[in-house]
Amino acid sequence: STGLSAYLSPADPAPKPSPKQPPPRVGPYLLYESCEKEETYRAMHTGTQQQYTCQVLPLRGYLERLAAYDRIDQHENICSLQDVVVRQDNVYVFLPGHHGDMHAYVRSRKHLDEEEAGRLFAQMLGAVTHCHQHGVILRDLKLRRFVFTDKYRTRLALLGLNDSVLLHGNLDDG
């Protein structure tokens, strides 16, 4: 007799969990390429062929994570929210498409002349200043979070406000 244990062990080993992939299609959007940042993908609207950046957020607490967008008026150096698709497992936040980030640009160029560096830094500073003036404090601020909005790589914008803290109370104390 083989005993009871022969009946209790699984016939096949349990499958190894694979990294969770988002569905290839979310509403009218096709997610087609993973970006450098975790849970960020390139996307295309299937009706218009317009390019987007899609950030995948957990369903839990997503309203709080997106609240900063309600605080910020439109600003040329901050990517505005284009669309949000809520699914049962995640929230898919669609921002404008871009032409690479500042971190990759600096690494590839190795050296920026003072005029170009000053012009790009002024745009980053403008985005951060605008956020602070509206009570939005950015966490984990990195060059990677600034993306080029034009193919000539002259205009920068902050990509994503979902990792920020909102100040409450009188914002005119400064």
Automatic annotation (TrEMBL):
List, alphabetically, the Gene3D superfamilies matched: Phosphorylase Kinase, domain 1 (3.30.200.20), Transferase(Phosphotransferase) domain 1 (1.10.510.10)
| Domain of life of the native organism | Eukaryota
- Domain (Protein kinase): residue spans on this chain: 1-174
Q: Name one Pfam family in it.
A: Pkinase
**Extent of Pro residues compositional bias:** 12-26
Q: Which GO terms describe its biological process?
A: positive regulation of proteasomal ubiquitin-dependent protein catabolic process
- UniProt cross-references to SUPFAM superfamilies, sorted A to Z: Protein kinase-like (PK-like)
Instruction: Please give the residue ranges the record annotates as the region Disordered.
Output: 1-27
Cross-referenced InterPro entries: Kinase-like_dom_sf, Prot_kinase_dom, Tribbles/Ser_Thr_kinase_40
Q: Which GO terms describe its molecular function?
A: ATP binding; mitogen-activated protein kinase kinase binding; protein kinase activity
- A GO term from the CC aspect: nucleus
Write down the PANTHER family for this protein, in alphabetical order: SER/THR PROTEIN KINASE-TRB, TRIBBLES HOMOLOG 3
Q: What is this protein called?
A: Tribbles homolog 3
Q: Which organism is it from?
A: Nothobranchius rachovii
State the encoding gene: TRIB3
